[in-house]
Structures are given as C-alpha cells and as structure tokens.
Specification:
187 residues, globular, alpha+beta, two-stranded parallel sheet
Length: 187
C-alpha cells in the first residue's frame, strides 16, 4: 500500500523513534508498504517517521543512483534499529533532498565513511563499513529516527533564505506528485 509521506512541520518528524522488537505486529507488511511508498515517491530511502510511525525502521534502495555512485549499485537494505559509528572526520559537502521537504535541495556536510550496525527484516545482525554516497543516504535516513532533518545541518544563513519555502510546506501551500500528509492546522 502506498502511504502518504509526512511533510515538514508535522510533529512526528521531530520525535525520537522507538526500537523495534521481533514481535512487532505486521512488520513485513509495513516494510513492504514503506518500499512501495519510497518507489512511488521516487526516493532512494524512507524512514518510518516519514510515514507517521516513530519506529526505528529505514528502507533504502540506492540502485537508481548506482550509475553515478558505484557503492550504491544493487544496494537495497532494510535497516531495523540501525546504529552509526563515524569513521571519517573529513566531511564532504553535497546536495541533499528529502521526500518530506519537496522541492528543496541544500548543500549538507556529512562524513563519507561510517560503520553501520543493524538487524534486517528477519532480525539477522549486520555490521558493515559503508562509504561514499551510500553512507550519506544512510546518515540522512537515520537522522529521521533521531527527529532530525537535513536542514538541521545547513548554515543559519541558508536556513533563513529558505524560511519562506519551509513555511509553505508546513502550511500546506505546496503540491506533490505523491500522497502526502501535511502538518496539523494550528488553532
């Protein structure tokens, strides 16, 4: 099922997500729905908070950018309870976008090498060194699990310059090509 993507301004995007246990109800269906939502929205990653769930679940399929970034080729991952360890102290600046911030793209500094520990949809443990653009995708999606968004990493002047666009998203003054859920109206 294609689920609506929650947009900037919705409080669910700013909450820290809860760990997922093996007895999580309908986990396989939720994961399948997350992949369908990500594909329909033409994203390469989606975190559970972006569909209104504060659970530590991320789906990634970096294959669409595999021609440009070799490390992304054929990389499809379901991350449950992921943990990141930074292995590089030299951040690289690249543009990022986000399904929860439609129409925006900003330069974000992130490290290019991380150690990622997680369990998959079968609760099998994984431990891998990840680098390059794939490391950026993983960091971006895992930020959502901590209640953060990529705009939290941009300079104050850039944030000031996009303030109007952020207000448009938060106040439902934009249209998307995929189903969305806007922030609740303030009374």
């Amino acid at each position: 099922m294609n689920l609506p993507v929650y947009l900037y301004g919705h409080p669910v995007l700013r909450k820290v997500s809860e760990p997922v246990t093996p007895d999580y109800p309908d986990l396989q269906k939720l994961i399948a729905d997350m992949y369908e939502t990500m594909y329909t929205s033409e994203g390469v990653g989606l975190a559970a908070p972006q569909i209104g769930r504060n659970d530590r679940i991320v789906v990634i399929d970096a294959s669409p950018v595999g021609d440009s970034y070799e490390e992304c080729r054929d990389r499809k991952m379901t991350l449950i309870n992921p943990e990141i360890e930074i292995l590089d102290d030299e951040p690289v600046t690249r543009y990022e976008g986000c399904l929860s911030l439609p129409g925006l793209s900003e330069k974000v500094k992130r490290v290019e090498k991380i150690r990622l520990r997680w369990v998959d949809e079968n609760f099998q443990e994984h431990d891998e060194i990840i680098s390059g653009f794939l490391a950026r995708i993983v960091q971006h999606e895992c930020d959502h699990l901590e209640g953060k968004m990529y705009i939290d990493h941009i300079t104050p002047i850039r944030k000031q310059l996009i303030k109007g666009k952020l207000a448009d998203i938060a106040n439902a003054r934009i249209r998307c090509d995929y189903p969305v859920r806007y922030a609740p109206r303030k009374k």
